[in-house]
Amino acid sequence: MRYLTVVRHAKAEPAALGQSDFERELTKRGRDQCRQLREWATDPTELGRFGPTVALVSAARRTKETYQRAFKGTPFVRARDYSELIYNGRREVSAEDLLLELASIDPVTSSLLVVGHNPTVAEVAATLAIEPTLDIRQGRFPLAGAYVFALPDDRPVGLATYELVATYVPD
């Protein structure tokens, strides 16, 4: 069995005057959320049991920082790609867009991790979950939250339904 872990970036500062949304950085609370994600990712009885993963990370500053603080250098991630296609601050990204980009890096031999943005990650979770949680059904995806889906071993990730096997939400 392999897995897809979908993570929303941690809490970020609002854009400063003249700053693009793409350049927002994490708050202290966001950095604390990343520490908790990192603890789970390095624990083989928690999130760590769903790795090692190939990661697809939005190229926005807050998602890159979330990835670096929570997952970089852990045994949970064995490879990583950054993508401007899954968020560039200029156009809406659908669940299907994200899944196509994720499928393009899917080796079909390991688990996957995506670190992205709402509303796209909530749409992905709602699209993929056989039995979505109330939060997912209502389009909510908590900051720094992680939802883990079981994937078949013999097919690339795609527009299908999967079992939601674990949820991690930092304090």
Specify the number of helices.
5
Q: What is the H level of CATH, i.e. the homologous superfamily?
A: Phosphoglycerate mutase-like
Quick one: biggest sheet? 6 strands, mixed
Could you name the ranges where pLDDT drops below 50 across 5 or more consecutive residues?
none
Number of strands: 6
Total domain modules: 1
What is the average per-residue confidence, as pLDDT, rounded to a whole number? 94
The chain-level structural class is alpha/beta
Overall spatial form: globular
CATH architecture identity = 3-Layer(aba) Sandwich
Largest sheet strand order:
3-2-4-1-5-6
CATH topology: Rossmann fold
CATH class: Alpha Beta
Order of SSEs = EHEHEHEHHEE
Rg from alpha-carbon coordinates: 15 Å
Bin the strand percentage: 15-25%
Taking the alpha carbons of the first and last residues, their distance comes to 29 Å
Q: How much helicity do the residues have?
A: 25-40%
